[in-house]
Amino acid sequence: MVRAAVLTAVNAPLQLTDIDLPEPGPGQVRIRLAAAGVCHSDLSLSNGTLRQPAPAVLGHEGAGTVTAVGEGVTRVATGDQVILNWAPSCGECHFCGIAEPWLCARAGAAAEVPYATLAADGSALYPGLGTAAFAEETVVPARAALPLPDGVPPVDAALLGCAVLTGWGAVHHSARVRAGESVAVFGAGGVGLATLQAARIAGAGPIVAVDVSAEKEELARSAGATEFVVAGDDTAKRIRKLTGGQGADVAVECVGRAQTIRTAWSSTRRGGRTTVVGIGGQDQQVTFSALELFYFGRTLSGCVYGNSDPAQDLPVIAEHVRSGALDLSALVTERIGLDGIPDAFDAMLAGRGGRALIVY
């Protein structure tokens, strides 16, 4: 049996319980988790903002060691250290065919199929985002297990699976930040902190961090922010003042709220670029006038998983980790056990801290 945090229904509290995990079938691998990050997307799955069949074991940002492989698996072997990929591309759909694997039409297929059962009554369990990392062990499709690059600490490596790939990709793929450009990052949680580090590595400046909590300033500055703004009604005006009166070249929104998206867009210069990483609900409506869209000439774009190809991006990111330019531990403000997930959810809702990391 395996210990896991189970979501019994949307908006229900997580229950720490035992589950029965089968041996891997054809094309699957079993992984003993070293660590898992608690991401805002997990909160969105638990409250119904994102669709997830229940009961389910959530958690999608994880790393661990392969303990068994199913028939036909050749890409990883027993004993390999791996990073979970919650959006594995199939390599065959339209989007994969045009080199946009982050939009793969089949990336979420595993989340729709039961993968384990509750030990108490045999009820079928679904894997959150296909990975189910809020458990001591999991079983995933082999393509969802990416080899851990050399020189990356296995526990901290969990963060590469979502926060870092998303933040890195938002800067380098979606916004395509160039050296010397000014960047404003909205939200200094796990993804926001990773985005700040990516902007610093890209040579951006000034780098303005925006958050509702003044307590985030030290965290943001340690990640690369040169300026810090407590969010308010005059946020866009203050960012323009910090960027020579023009506005930021690039804004990255890591919150997922209509008001924040609108403010991020308004904070950029004419011709500026806004990338939306945060996941908002269907009720979050953002409005623009036709005239301002024409006049400002700004670009607003969504960003899924950092518009990243993990197989290509992880080796690049790992090199920055090995050199010390990218500090994974700086994203983590709390290390917890499975029983600490509810408090981590509460902290995210309250806007406290960076990433909470479950260490098994």
- Radius of gyration, CA atoms, in whole angstroms: 20 Å
Number of helices: 10
Percent helix: 25-40%
Number of DSSP strand runs = 18
Label the structural class.
alpha/beta
Largest sheet: 7 strands, mixed
Taking all residues together, what is the mean pLDDT? 94
Q: Would you identify the regions where 5 or more consecutive residues have pLDDT less than 50?
A: none
Would you kindly provide a written description of the structure presented here, covering whatever features stand out?
The structure is a single chain. The protein is an alpha/beta fold. 25% of the residues lie in helices and 27% in strands. The chain has ten helices and 18 strands. The protein has helices at residues 40-46, 94-97, 163-174, 190-201, 217-223, 235-242, 258-266, 290-296, 310-323, 341-350, and strands spanning 2-7, 14-20, 28-38, 56-57, 61-69, 81-84, 116-118, 124-127, 137-141, 145-147, 183-186, 207-211, 227-230, 248-253, 268-276, 299-302, 332-336, 355-359. The strands form three sheets. Strands 3, 5, 6, 9, 10, 17 and 18 form a seven-stranded mixed sheet that branches. A six-stranded parallel sheet has the order 13-12-11-14-15-16, sandwiched between helices. Strands 1-2-7-8-4 form a five-stranded mixed β-barrel. Helix 3 (163-174) crosses helix 4 (190-201).
